Amino acid sequence: MALPVTIGRAGVTLLGVAAATALLAYGAWHWSGATRSELETTASANAAPSDVPGVPARERDSVDLSDAQLAYVKVEPVAEREFPVEKEAVGSIDFDQDMAVQVFTPYQGRIVALYAAVGNDVKKGETLFTIDSPDLLQAESTLIAAAGVLEFTTRNLARLRELYRTLAISQRDLDQATSDQQTAEGNLRAARDSVRLFGKTDADIDRIIAQRSADPTLVVPSPINGRVTARNAAPGLFVQPGNAPAPFTVADIDSMWMLAEVPEADSPAFRIGQEVRVTLAAFPGRVFDGKITTIGASVDASTRRVMIRSVISDPGHELRSGMFANFVIRVGPPLRSPGIPIDGVVREGDGTMTVWITADRRRFTRRTVKIGAQHDGYRQIVEGVQLGELAATEGALFLSNALATASR
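and the corresponding structure tokens:
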């Protein structure tokens, strides 16, 4: 009787194992099927429109906006605009060297005092510096002596004329006195002219003669109206005419130079007399006008560039030498082309330029375009759009982000 009991227990045990195995197998089959279905559903929901077969490319590049989203987009018809044909380059401001003067002393001597510094605006005739000139001292001494001789000969001639009336002297003596007086007059005129060459006025010369005092201080004035651009003078420095460096350099700053190096390939587009519009970082929003005056005769062998020089009008004396400048030169008649505001053009990650076109002001389609020049906040569209089409002029970037979000 023990055997049936044992067999019964073994049978129960084997039955339990078989049932458990079957249950696990069914559970594994059911779980794997459910997981696979859910994954397929999730992948299908997250697939980008461009990955769905059978969807046209135009539909894949389109987005539909809700009423709330439309508030971020502005739509306008594509209109024709005028785009000037221009060349742009970078240059630097410099003094007009044709209007810059190196101020030397006309005679040698030692500098006594300085009256101007670099950056000072000076008027024509305004004193720049003074020197102690031995040449001036010699000229003034000669002037004083000539004035004294003339005074003596004049008195002597008057006395001899009185004596001649009483027949106390001969005609020969009177003629000699007259000749001496005329010679003294000529010497005095020559002496005055010599002193005048040193910059002394007639009033200064009369004062020297009256006071019988020579002043060796030579005044060196500014020859033009302008700004002091360089000073190499110091008190006590011995200077000579023409010896470099000049004690002072003064430049007329009513006009300035703009120097630029343009690529060799662009050089044929430039002509002398072309108008130039210059902008500088120091004066945002300001435009300075000028004209091309010089085009280099050769190409720099190392940079393959050509020198362009323009004269820029600066009546307000605002420009400074060394300033960097951006300039634009119109090299041809303007072109009329479709134009879209800059905010309506988007540069994609692959470098292409796109705009967003709509027919119903709700569904927008991305379109690749070819762009051209930029002027007054508009971008020239060379290819890709037609006049009159509705385009997003604001919010184009928002549309691109919305399409990217939908794709993800």
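(Above: one complete record from the training split.) Residues 136-196 form a domain with the Helix Hairpins fold (CATH 1.10.287.470).
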